[in-house]
Structures are given as structure tokens and as C-alpha cells.
Amino acid sequence: MEPKRKTILALQKMKAEGEKISVLTAYDYALARIMDEAGIDVILVGDSVGTVVSGHDTTLPVTMEEMIYHTRAVVRGSRQALVVADLPFLSYQVDLRDARLNAGRLIKEGGAQAVKLEGGENQAATIRAITAMDIPVMGHIGLTPQSIHRMGGYRVQGRQEAQARQLLADAQAVEAAGAFALVLEGIPRYLARDISNAVSIPTIGIGAGVYCDGQVLVIHDILGLCEKYSPKFVKKFADVSGTIRGGVDAYIREVKDAAFPATEHSFD
């Protein structure tokens, strides 16, 4: 019997019952399958694919076509997790028609069950327009990587009182616009606690402390596969990079020594 995917209603129930929500990014079939079988609640096909897979310095170059491609792969590799796909830069900021069309493409062509976009009060109309199509939207406030140039880099947001008030207003605006959940990135943990208590939708933290309703990290970061960045909020849960390097070293050595392929790897 085919397992049932988690739904946005399941996440809302988890918040109500105090059960933490586990979220990780994925960009391909193989890792999505492993994460899904492990029981991850949500897989986020993040535009972070631009930095950890494609090697860009920011997420800004990522296109809709890239997001659809990676979303398809993740959906094929998962059966139980709710799959949320990022709307990349310029896919929703220009006008509401673009926003609705591109959100629809991630659902229809990519196979995602929900989309995520960055912004608070300034994107409330966009969230309303997309949710009016019955497409679930996850919000994202605080340190928003698509706004890196305005923020002057990857800086913690909300330390000043005025910033903190604005982030609370952003969270409430996102909820009122119809979002089913909200990512809080790069904000002080007590502000994240206040926001989590102020909204009825689940909050998913990344660099926002333990008081959020769930947590999200980039899969390459927790596996030690991305050495380009090392944010304070990342914890390495495994050293897959070392394992891969050891395997590649062994392969090179056996090829050079003519130890591989052996008889059992050859045809008569």
C-alpha cells in the first residue's frame, strides 16, 4: 500500500500538539529517497541549490527551469514527506500574474505540494494571490537570501527594536495572507519565540533557535558536503565528505595498480 504524504494540515496539527517538525533541503532523487525513508516531515527543494550544487555565490542566479527540474527529481524520490519548492528570484516579485503562473508551474510541472517565497508585508498580496489558486504557500522572513544586497550580506536580522517590531508585523501579515507555515531565518532566538507564540501557523527555524515549531537545514551542510560556507547555526551530523574522498582515493589507487576491475567485475 502506497504510504500517504504529510499534508499542510498534518503540520498544523503537529504545532497544536507540540510536536517538532523536521525539515531538510534536497535537490535530487537519491538523497530525497534516503531522507524520505528516514522519516523526514518536509523536504524543501530550496533555491540554495544555486550555492551548494551549482557553485554560485548567491541564490540569485537560480531559474524557474532549474527549480522545476530539481523538484521533479525530489518528488520521484519521496513518498511520505511534504515537498515544498522555492520560488526563485524574479519569479514572483515583478507582478502577480508571474507569481501565480510560476507557483502553478512548480505544482503542475514540478509535482510539489506547496511553494515557498521570501518576504513579509511587502509580499502579502502575492501570498494572497497564490493561495487564492488553492496553492499552499510557506512564507520566509528574517534573513532572506534573495535580499542579500539590501541587507549587505548574510547578517542576523531583528536585533534592533524597530527591526524586531517589523519582523513581528511581517509574520502576522504572512499568516493573514493565508500562508500555512513560516520560515524564520537568522533572527535572535527570543524574537523567534515571540513570533512563534504570536502566530497560529507553524514556524520553521534556521538560525533562529530552539523555540520555533520546527527546524530546517541544508542537507549538504549537515553531511559535511559543503565546505564553502560554515554558518554558526549549522551542525555537522555526519562527515560524508570524508567517506566519499576515501572511496575516490581507493578507486584511483586500484585503477592505477590494475587491481580494478578484477575477474568478478569482468565478462567472459
How would you portray this structure in words?
The protein has 11 helices and 8 strands. It is of the alpha/beta class. The protein has 2 domains: 8-237, Phosphoenolpyruvate-binding domains (TIM Barrel, Alpha-Beta Barrel), CATH 3.20.20; 239-268, no CATH class. It has an 8-stranded parallel beta barrel, surrounded by 7 helices. α2 (29-38) crosses α4 (64-76), α5 crosses α6 and α8 packs parallel to α9 (189-198).
What's the order of the H and E elements? Answer: HEHEHHEHEHEHHEHEEHH
Question: Mind telling me which CATH architecture of the largest domain this is?
Answer: Alpha-Beta Barrel
Cα radius of gyration in angstroms: 20 Å
Count of helical segments?
11
Mean pLDDT over the full residue set:
96
Order of strands, main sheet, comes to 1-2-3-4-5-6-7-8
Low-confidence parts lasting 5 or more residues at pLDDT below 50?
none
- Which term fits the overall shape? globular
Question: How many distinct domains?
Answer: 2
Q: Note the beta-strand portion.
A: 5-15%
The major beta sheet can be summarized as: 8 strands, parallel, barrel
- Name of the level-1 CATH class of the largest domain: Alpha Beta
Q: Work out the helicity level.
A: 40-55%
The N- to C-terminal Cα distance equals: 42 Å
CATH superfamily of the largest domain: Phosphoenolpyruvate-binding domains
Q: Which topology of the largest domain does CATH recognise?
A: TIM Barrel
User: What structural category arises from helix and sheet content?
Assistant: alpha/beta
